[in-house]
Design goal:
Strand content: 15-25%
Shape: elongated
Helix content: 25-40%
Oligomer: single chain
Structural class: alpha/beta
Radius of gyration: 45 Å
Length: 758
Amino acid sequence: MLCREVQNYISTAKGLPFFYVIGDEDYCSVLEELKQADISVVRMSEFCLKDDKFPSVDELVDYFRTSDVDYRDNKFVVIGLGEYLALRGSAVADKELRRLKNTTLGNARAILLLRGVSSQAAKIIRDDNKMVEQQRAYVSNNLLTNVSVTNMPEDVGLVVQTGIKYLLRAFEDGAIGNVYTSTSLVLDNALFPLFTLSGAYSVVKYIVGDFELDSGLGTEEQWKRLLKDLNKCSKDIRAVFDKYGIDERLIDDLCLAVSGLEYRNWLVFLYLKLNAKQIQNYYLKLVIDETLNFEDFKTNLMVKITEFSHQDRYFRLLYDERKKLLRNFPEEDIAVFVKTNEIDPDESIYHLTDNTLLEKKTIVKWVVSNGISEAIAYVYPALDEYLKKYIFDCPVLSDELTEYFDLYKKQKVSNHISDEFIKLVEKYADGISYAQLPTRDNAIKAVSSKNNAFLYWIDSLGVEYLSYITALAKKKGLSIHTDIVRSDLPTITSINKQFYEQWMGGKKYKEEQLDNIKHKDKGGYFFTDDEDPIHIPAELEVIEKALNTAAMELGMHNCKSFIIASDHGASRLAVIKKQEVPYETDTKGEHSGRCCKSFDGCDVPYKVEENGYIILSDYGRFRGSRPANVEVHGGASLEEIVVPVITLTLKKQVGVKITVMHSDDITADRHDGVTLNLYISDVESPDNISLVIEDKPYQAKSEDATHFTFALTDIKRAKMKPYTADVFDGSDLIGSVSFKVKGKTATIKDDFDFGDEF
């Protein structure tokens, strides 16, 4: 109900305006009551000559005076005036209210509904006793207002109708709380709380709760695009992320999420920054915390690890988590890291991974320059498995082949030939000890159930890869049996392909890529371009492909056995030796000069003549031959002649449990060594159980089907650190065990308690 003072004012002309000072609570109800009393509404916004120009109080005064003429419509309420004056500030409000207080109206009646300037209006009323005496003022009990204004640029898209006119119109309609506007007018003295937003970022920061990210994380265009999306998604940034499919799962394929400079890639970065505390990957969290702009994000993902020494407490955790994050990133991205990682050669090896071929090559080149490092075990496990000593277990030459190929592999990877190894090569070049080995063709003929066997020929596969092949077979749950055999001379494919052509069994396949890598142009590796052995990673990938194929074919039961065989091996060291035979001949050398058709008078010191060929058995090559690419075959070095015939089958699907018996009572005797007893839950070949300790093999004595005794005659002293042993069931590596050895004297002392007297 209207107050008594305003009712009296309406009924009797006073000649001057009425001040109705009001707050938010009563504004709408009072205005509605005035309308019902047939009071015309005059909007202050209508006195704005332009949309973004302050209204004219002079025009309002003129309106007052002309209203006296029309006696039918000379009672009105002015709304928006108080809010306008509040926007102008206390000084303007006081000046204009004092002016309006004394504006003559004649018979017209003007009620000024004043919200937002209660202090100024109340003071004027107190200063002028006549206003109270003449009942030309009323101050409501509740004058509180929570109006605030957020001014933002027009182009951010949050304000539909821009300009001060429409801000006043919102107030006139009773708007409370925060009101958006886009005005170019200066509102620095406003009595309402005023928030001025100068760009899209400031608007985003304002409307998104707890948004503490810095504006430098994005460009103005990116912030504008986000603001546009926020407007479409009810100002909920989580809804924006949902719209673009961005959630915690993006870490599973971070490459796809961050590769590029598109808007969605930036949103991913923003999502990670906003959710940094929830990131479980410590390396990603570190990068996110320390990256200040989107353009640096991917680079920091690549290179941040280079800031850490491998000796730092958390290095391996960060390394492992980075490796998982970057597993799908292409080489062009990783190249940035590889280049940065060159700064400190002593540390660089520890930062590399085997995620990309580029890094694998870089690891190999580092080894060439710096030597074999223990870091290879985790930065490039495949290379580490390749380098492990393979313990040959064949009727003849086991120790000789074990020693030879262990040295050969290390020198191949290091790209170096020692004088001692050259002497070893010449020792074997001077004889034909390899002739004691069985032939490959006979081993293939001995394959049982050929109709259920798959013959997989890997051209140029030598025995140097056996440690890697054994490790892969174990990982894939395959049983492996290896026959060490020899090729026919010369070690060229035309002489050594009968085993494949005459195969009468089931499926067969020839894998040529290994041979291509070693010495064909289409393999893509050239010694003249890069003398380092950067082809090794590609070789290992061919081997892995073969074992994957074996696991698939056997797992699908397309065959019962998978036979990997080869025509010949190849020699890397014969290439890097760069040794030409000082012998002139008109016969053009074949296979990079490792052999040529027989001719009279050839008096080179290390040669074999067979099948109409002269075959070099050291690392020489005939003059006039085509230079090798990165490896060569055709000669009679052990790495060219000795090849494996590998039989892979499925293991029984049981977990083999291996337990060291009486582990607390293992003692070393200086005469007899150590006796080790193992329990093995399931074996295929109980008469062929062995273990390897520090590269030395030991054969087991079978006590029964599950208990085995080993006489470790070479271990005659105690050792502080545990011994580690690889356990083999035939050729299968079925597990590893560790055990401690105590000295006999220490054991005797432990058996007696001398009390406190000693």
